[in-house]
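# step 3/5: fold
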Amino acid sequence: MAFLELRALTKRFGGAIAVDRLSLTVDKGEFVSLLGPSGCGKTTTLQMIAGFVEPSAGAILLAERDLTTIKPAARGLGIVFQSYALFPHMTAAENIAFGLEMRRVAKAEQTRRVAEVLALVGLTGLSDRYPRRMSGGQQQRVALARALVIKPDVLLLDEPLSNLDAKLREEMQVELRQIQRTVGTTTILVTHDQGEAMALSDRIVVMNRGRAEQVARPTEIYQSPATAFVADFLGKINVLPATVTAGVITIGTGSWAAPGTADGTVNASVRPERIGFSDGAGLAGTIRAKVFQGHHWLFQVATEVDLVLVIAPNDGRAMPGEGTTVRLNWRAEDMVLSQPERAS
């Protein structure tokens, strides 16, 4: 039985629907990310779970208890905001202990639990430091510790890493996942960062216009996107016009065996890192641009069907230059076929 369940959760603001009949089940200890562009309804969903926004319809169940009539402070949830929302006049330890004081936890127990979470987030030696004397990463750890010290049933994270620089954000992703696994707290993350969602999550909910387009594990969503929106939102992808005839997919000069595939016109989607340069068969093209990006090369190849992006690892092999005629090839199983969208 699901630990947290959203049943046809809906939120309307006037005539606009921010969240449209969203249903989701989350297991105890699971890390689930709500991923999507601005305005997709992910933050509104989190705010409804937290109790800051009242649903227009639907239910929120936590361990079979309906949260919709319970005040935010009584829901037993830990929340980390994008801005961290630390009290500037309090030390790290005082910030962390605040929630315990509100719950009238004994001072000795407060001291013990604050010390535990400071050690958990790697801030044992900074308990007396004020936020203004802490780095962004340290402030983020204090905010996380403050949310965890109350031992919440569910931890809600509202883009907590978005204010950090790229390098620190990657480091904190690793730390956050390790901390979540250590404490085993059921966690819901709101993010617009695809890489962050894939790095942290057990499952991802890709949201668009208030609805869940796909709910699945990161590898499944990336490799087998359910819709064109999911495919495009989660990283670079090539969508190429193709035809299927007698079990063969044809894209320009290239062809791939596809037994059991119905004949007709389709779109074939393939990730750029799955495409390689071939000495023989494949889609013919000419390299228009070649860009060095550190651990890989990015190519833009002009073909007879469309421009194709190719990502090749920087593994020491010689790479073709701009203006070179090439053949592009990939495995048939690396393609996802879909019906072309009809013009409205």
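# step 4/5: annotate
The two ends are 42 Å apart (CA to CA).
# step 5/5: archive (pending)
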